[in-house]
Specification:
Layout: E1 2-11, E2 14-24, E3 29-33, H1 40-47, E4 55-60, E5 63-64, H2 70-76, E6 78-81, H3 93-100, H4 109-119, H5 121-125, H6 136-148, E7 154-158, H7 166-181, E8 185-189, H8 193-199, E9 202-207, E10 210-216, H9 217-221, H10 224-230
Parallel strand pairs: 3-8, 3-9, 6-7, 7-8
Antiparallel strand pairs: 1-2, 1-4, 4-5, 9-10
Helix pairs in contact: 3-6
Protein name: ABC transporter ATP-binding protein
Organism: Veillonella absiana
Pfam families: ABC_tran, BCA_ABC_TP_C
């Protein structure tokens, strides 16, 4: 469904991605893991057109999306839950969700907001509350809800569990599984390697801008190098 081939990207003279290739098959959960600064967020931003690749190609459902504008990439069916949630803190929960539908122009936006409220009843209760007053977990739910408002075929999640209490982390992972089961393909960047590999079908390991390993999530989880570097040796 999504294919990155030999993608090189960065910021000015800083090359963050040194020719990476990655595939996300339709219907799967693919997890991208790696240490801080490895280039995981840059990969997500490059897919979304927020960072322009200097080499390589990105195709989505057979369409070349390399260098396309972000709103057209969203229209094509990819949406991002960014690192740090990026909720609009001075806008209400409801308005944040409306923002997620900015590329749409149909009559079903309100229905989709109701669907988000059904998935996350706490957001319904707080629909008039300002985004900035929500807890971290609620903000993450809002960030996911907002991304779903674009009706993505492929959902990119950048460290959704970051900074959340263990119970909330489990809820978020459950939600990701549900979204996947409902037919949305998922690319997940996570520091929480253990949980990410539990729900993923396939995984890639990125180190200083290069893919060093990929395989079925189960095989990656039991790889000695991964166990040592990301799973505390267990
Ligand atoms: P983290 O988990 O810390 O977000 P990451 O794997 O997502 O790490 P990136 O944020 O993609 O890593 O960063 C990859 C490299 O690009 C790092 O060396 C980082 O310092 C650099 N970098 C990231 N964003 C910028 C930017 N806006 N300007 C310049 N350099 C950047």
């Amino acid at each position: 469904m999504l294919k990155l081939e030999n993608v090189v990207a960065g910021y000015g003279h800083i090359i963050a991605l040194k020719s990476i290739s990655l595939e996300v098959p339709q219907g799967s959960i693919v997890s991208l893991i790696g240490a801080n600064g490895a280039g995981k967020s840059t990969t997500m931003k490059t897919i979304m057109g927020l960072v322009k690749p200097t080499e390589g190609s990105i195709t989505f459902e057979g369409q070349d999306i390399t260098g396309m504008k972000t709103h057209n990439i969203v229209k094509a069916g990819i949406s991002l839950v960014p690192e740090g949630r990026q909720i609009l803190s001075d806008m209400s929960v409801y308005e944040n969700l409306e923002m997620g539908a900015y590329i749409r122009n149909d009559k079903e936006i309100e229905d989709d907001i109701k669907k988000v409220f059904k998935r996350f009843p706490i957001l319904d209760e707080r629909s008039y509350q300002m985004g900035g007053t929500l807890s971290g977990g609620q903000q993450q739910m809002l960030a996911i809800g907002r991304a779903l408002m674009a009706r993505p075929k492929l959902l990119l999640l950048d460290e959704p569990s970051m900074g959340l209490a263990p119970l909330v982390v489990s809820e978020i992972f459950e939600t990701i599984k549900e979204i996947s089961a409902e037919g949305t393909t998922v690319l997940l960047v996570e520091q929480n390697v253990r949980q990410a590999l539990k729900i993923a079908d396939y995984a890639y390991v990125l180190e200083t801008g290069k893919m060093v390993l990929d395989g079925k999530a189960e095989d990656v989880r039991t790889n000695p190098r991964v166990m040592e570097a990301y799973l505390g040796g267990r």
